[in-house]
From TrEMBL:
This is ABC transporter ATP-binding protein. Keywords: ATP-binding, Nucleotide-binding, Transport. The keyword Cell membrane does not apply. Pfam families: ABC_tran (PF00005). It comes from the Bacteria.
Length: 246
């Protein structure tokens, strides 16, 4: 079992934002983290990344908490943030080099892993470019390449679709599928429900920092008595019933 979140209550101050969250992401599973603005998705991700400490409960990655071995824990997570974070003074090539160094990878091996990804995202031939030369989508692709070359056991991906063009989204979804097949665990937060529905094996729906529902699409359809409904339809119904706007 790769990621295990057990009864996590947490937040930024002593006032909890997350309340008693429990869910798992198994090896080879892609779980969609879904919820309205302010539901607690990014806060959940910050706890998983070890940027925030749970007030109660525990988070296990490959059966270890961050306190058992923080270096190993962090090395096992590849994070793709919603907003690309790049170093303005470093080229694309140097970004790959510092990622390799930060994760203790052999630099040549990192470039070997990066080459097909750079080609896929049409970034090959741009290794000497600086972030200021890249569009928003290109920056997002650099983040994706850097996360994928470390070959982590868990990918944590925060709203990946916003800056990407349709071709890049298609390629990115294909890459996620390949990683799943190789046994990686993936937690992806997104508002783009039709993409989530295409690729996620299961969903965790957050509302006001609590788990509103979780399960596969067919389990959610059964739970909400909406046979054949899309994730979008179910989410709309939930929103109406709860009296909140999407
Ligand atoms: N740095 C912070 N300090 C204090 N409270 C915060 C901070 N960041 C977020 N919050 C609060 O935590 C709650 C959950 O926010 P969070 O960013 O986790 O939501 P989200 O589901 O990721 O939303 P979005 O879809 O808009 O990205 C909100 O009430 C928000 O106001």
């Amino acid at each position: 079992m790769s990621l295990r979140i057990e009864h996590v209550t947490g937040g930024y101050t002593r006032r909890p934002i997350l309340n008693d969250l429990s869910f798992n992401v198994a090896d080879g599973e892609l779980v969609g983290l879904i919820g309205l603005n302010g539901a607690g998705k990014s806060t959940t991700i910050k706890h998983i990344m070890g940027l925030l400490e749970p007030f109660e409960g525990q988070i296990f990655l490959n059966d270890k908490t961050i306190h058992m071995d923080s270096t190993l824990y962090r090395r096992n997570i590849g994070f793709i943030p919603e907003t690309p974070v790049l170093y303005e003074e470093l080229t694309l090539k140097e970004h790959i080099e510092i990622t390799a160094m930060a994760y203790g990878l052999d630099v040549d091996r990192a470039f070997k892993s990066a080459t097909p990804l750079l080609k896929l995202f049409r970034l090959d031939g741009r290794l000497e470019w600086f972030p200021s030369d890249f569009s928003k989508g290109m920056k997002q692709k650099v983040m994706i390449v850097c996360a994928f070359i470390i070959e982590p056991s868990l990918y944590v991906i925060d709203e990946p679709f916003l800056g990407l063009d349709p071709l890049a989204i298609r390629d990115f979804l294909k890459l996620l599928n390949e990683k799943k097949e190789q046994g990686a665990s993936i937690l992806m937060s997104t508002h783009v429900l039709n993409n989530a529905e295409k690729i996620c094996d299961a969903f965790v729906i957050l509302h006001n920092g609590k788990i509103y529902a979780k399960g596969t699409l067919s389990q959610l359809r059964e739970k909400f008595k909406m046979p054949g409904a899309s994730l979008d339809d179910m989410y709309g119904r939930l929103a109406d019933e709860e009296g909140f706007l999407i």
